[in-house]
Amino acid sequence: MAELAIDECRNFAEEKKLPPLSVAVVDESGTLVRFERQTGASPLTAEAATLKAQSAVQARSSTADLASQAQDPTVRDALMLLHLTTLPGGVPIMRSDSSLRGAIGVSGAESGDDAECAQRALAAIREQARARRRPATSRHFTHPVRQRN
Prior knowledge:
The protein is of the alpha+beta class. A hairpin with a 5-residue loop joins strand 3 and strand 4. The protein is globular and about 85 Å long. The protein contains five helices and four strands, in the order αββαααββα.
């Protein structure tokens, strides 16, 4: 899962000709599972990507959604107190039963590109999970039955 997320972000950055990115994948506790800082990415993007992923886990919400909620001063203060970021680019990874699996954080490009990259990685993880849940198709061949006289 983590490797797939990083591969998708790497491909996305290449396709869109984005600056070098940092991508962090954390588990449901916010512990870093996999990380990549592309050559040339600022060291600050490493911290930002990790914080975005950890914020998405703690809030069980994308950091872009947190940004819209932070318009309320009370919510904004609570987010700051909890050291959560509202910078777009963090998305939670939820299982089909709505339990939390982890999160992806992306940093290094414009906020919208970071968020789009994280969403693309999430879509790839969901597709992989759907493919694993699909029942294997049966390849039984039917042959005519010959009756003996």
